[in-house]
Amino acid sequence: MASSGKASINSCARCFCTRAGLSNDEVYQLIAPRRTLNRREAEQQALSSEEADRAVRVARIVARAQQVFSAKPAYALEWLRTALRSLGDRAPIQVLNSDTGARAVEELLIGVEYGQFS
Asked: Which of the four pLDDT bands, split at 50, 70 and 90, describes residue 79?
């Protein structure tokens, strides 16, 4: 019974990424390598705590971007993939591999929400 719960965790992570519009390459860069995720799914293993933290971080930022750009839902992903000077000419999605990067993106989204464009 526990293994089915573990499988559903990976399935939920993949489902979220698909629904959020993230490419497989983005998932593999931000959460875990392809081979690792495929192995975990085949062996019905849960994500490691680090992988789960990364998945939650990405989900939180994507959801926040979708909320900020709710009038233009497709723009949220476009914004996340567009290089910004304030991030050293990197796209927000490129800095989500660290908590510090995610916080910087959250701050930018707050600025956009309150009329300070990045």
From this structure: very high
Name the residue among 73, 37, 70, 68 with its Cα closest to residue 55: 37
Q: In the chain, how long is the greatest CA-to-CA distance?
A: 49
Please give the Cα distance from 54 to 95 (Å, whole number). Answer: 12
Contacts of 118 (CB under 8 A, 6+ apart): 84, 86, 108, 111, 112
Task: Tell me the range of 47-51, 73-77, 89-93 where mean pLDDT is highest.
Answer: 89-93
Distance CA 13, CA 51 (A): 10
Task: Give the domain ranges of the chain.
Answer: 2-113
Of 77, 17, 21, 22, the C-alpha closest to 47 is: 17
Q: Are 51 and 65 in contact (CB under 8 A)?
A: no
Identify whether the C-beta of residue 92 lies closer than 8 Å to the C-beta of residue 105: yes
